[in-house]
């Protein structure tokens, strides 16, 4: 009787150990073999890997878009007639030197400097629209980097976007990037969830594919308000 009991106990122990071994070792090993793909056998960790890959792909897309757009954003510095210093940026919109920025950054009777690759270039201010807060400048330089224009009719709530602007570190110009999503929009403006306490006036907003969506102004709460590309195209004639 006792011998039978021990036999049953041994069989139970080996059976339990075999079940654990099959579940933790054999089954995961075999379902990853090509022979089993046709049966649609999958494991939970595959989904984790897929999510990681999606995140990596999104980050890579953002890095590629920033690299594609940053050279088209250039810095400007203005000294007004009352000696106030204004710093900001704008966007090159044609390879032969057309440049658009905010009218508030280039007020009349001021001294201006526009920097391409960190160097000041000659320029001519073509026109200002104070109501729409836009200014068009002709830089005396060619073969400049440009980007494509986005379509405001294709903008979606929650769409991932990023801005590229400039700051001055002493005499050096540095590019600044921030990202967020479209919070709300209409035909007159776009609002994101991006907040910039340093201003970044005139910085450019792009979609994740690097298409230009508008120029940024900043309200008193540090929220980015975008003059949409539709208004900019109407102003510039492009």
Task: Describe, in plain words, how this protein is organized in 3D.
26% of the residues are buried. With 238 residues, the protein is of the alpha+beta class. The protein has helices spanning 2-31, 44-69, 229-236, and strands at 73-79, 85-92, 98-101, 111-116, 119-121, 123-129, 134-139, 160-169, 172-185, 190-195, 204-207, 212-218, 223-228. It contains three helices and 13 strands. Among the domains are: 71-139, Trypsin-like serine proteases (Thrombin, subunit H, Beta Barrel), CATH 2.40.10; 148-236, Beta Barrel (Thrombin, subunit H), CATH 2.40.10.
Provide a short characterization of the protein structure.
The protein is an alpha+beta fold and 238 residues long. Helices cover 27% and strands 37% of the residues.
Q: Number of helical runs?
A: 3
Strand percent estimate: 35-45%
Under CATH, the topology of the domain at 148-236 can be stated as: Thrombin, subunit H
Q: Looking at this structure, what is the CATH superfamily of the domain at 148-236?
A: Trypsin-like serine proteases
Distance between the termini: 97 Å
Q: Number of DSSP strands? A: 13
Tell me the series of helices and strands, N- to C-terminal.
Answer: HHEEEEEEEEEEEEEH
Global outline: globular
Q: What portion of residues is helical?
A: 25-40%
Arithmetic mean of pLDDT: 81
What is the CATH domain class of the domain at 148-236?
Mainly Beta
- Across the major sheet, the strand order is 5-4-1-2-3-7-6
Just name the CATH architecture of the domain at 148-236: Beta Barrel
- Report the structural category: alpha+beta
Q: Strand count, sense and closure of the main sheet?
A: 7 strands, antiparallel
């Amino acid at each position: 009787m006792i011998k039978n009991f021990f036999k049953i106990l041994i069989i139970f122990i080996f059976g339990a150990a075999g079940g654990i071994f099959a579940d933790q070792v054999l089954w995961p090993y075999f379902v990853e073999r090509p022979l089993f793909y046709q049966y649609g056998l999958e494991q939970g960790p595959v989904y984790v890997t897929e999510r990681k890959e999606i995140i990596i792909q999104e980050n890579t897309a953002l890095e590629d878009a920033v690299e594609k757009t940053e050279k088209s954003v250039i810095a400007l510095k203005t000294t007004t007639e009352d000696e106030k210093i204004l710093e900001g940026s704008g966007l090159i919109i044609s390879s032969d030197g057309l440049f658009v920025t905010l009218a508030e950054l280039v007020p009349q009777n001021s001294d201006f400097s526009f920097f391409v690759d960190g160097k000041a270039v000659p320029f001519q201010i073509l026109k200002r629209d104070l109501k729409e807060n836009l200014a068009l400048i002709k830089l005396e330089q060619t073969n400049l980097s440009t980007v494509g224009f986005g379509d405001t009719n294709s903008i979606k709530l929650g769409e991932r976007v990023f801005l590229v602007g400039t700051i001055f570190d002493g005499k050096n110009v540095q590019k600044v990037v921030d990202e967020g999503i479209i919070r709300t929009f209409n035909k007159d403006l776009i609002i994101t969830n991006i907040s910039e306490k340093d201003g970044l006036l005139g910085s450019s907003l792009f979609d994740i594919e690097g298409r230009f969506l508008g120029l940024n102004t900043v309200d008193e709460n540090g929220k980015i308000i975008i003059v949409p590309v539709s208004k900019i195209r109407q102003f510039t004639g492009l």
